[in-house]
Specification:
The chain is of the alpha/beta class. The protein has helices at about 25-35, 55-60, 75-90, 110-115, 135-140, 150-165, and strands spanning about 5, 10, 70, 95-105, 125-130.
Length: about 180
């Protein structure tokens, strides 16, 4: 808890510092870490990546109940998922949902196409809308929430509520409206 970055009641711990040391960590390391902190938090969200030769990623995927795969509307990303799908299956990893990040409604690879191509029920696909601020956020080293893009924020709220519901938490996040004086 002491090594986490904390914002209100959200704690964040970074991954390994250097990709070169990832080989020193094994799946049991992730299990030990998750077992150690599980009673400290209501929800633990792990960004494990999709490197199936990384012990921490495998350990995280083995030891979490709800798995979401994050993809984008790109041919290379869809092909990569299709290539990894049999490996996920052999490892016993199934995903409870897909999140289409940087979603663009005008893209050829729309949600229906992705659903059919990847054989996923459409109700298991969530989206996070593309925002014009993604490059600015990276340069400013802050999150996209700071830019108040309505569509992006609404998608994040929807995603958050889906996660809370899957965790049987009654908390429902709503968009805060700020009062503005018109005088």
């Amino acid at each position: 808890m002491e090594t986490c970055k904390q914002t209100d009641n959200l704690y964040h711990i970074a991954g390994i510092e250097s990709i070169g040391v990832s080989r020193f960590y094994h799946p049991e390391t992730a299990k030990y870490f998750l077992d150690t902190v599980k009673d400290c938090f209501d929800i633990i969200i792990v960004d494990s990546g999709n490197e199936l030769d990384d012990g921490l990623a495998i350990g995280a995927l083995e030891n979490i109940e709800e798995r979401f795969c994050i993809i984008t509307q790109q041919e290379s990303v869809l092909k990569n998922y299709e290539k990894l799908k049999p490996i996920y299956s052999k490892l016993g990893f199934c995903f409870n949902g897909m999140i289409v990040n940087k979603h663009n409604s005008g893209n050829y690879y729309d949600l229906d196409y992705i659903s059919k191509r990847l054989s996923i029920c459409s109700d298991q696909i969530l989206k996070v809308e593309m925002t014009d601020y993604y490059l600015q956020a990276e340069m400013d080293r802050c999150t996209l929430i700071n830019y108040n893009d309505k569509n992006y924020i609404n998608d994040i709220i929807e995603l958050s509520n889906q996660i809370l519901n899957k965790c049987d938490l009654d908390i429902c996040i709503k968009r805060k409206r700020k009062w503005r004086s018109f005088i």
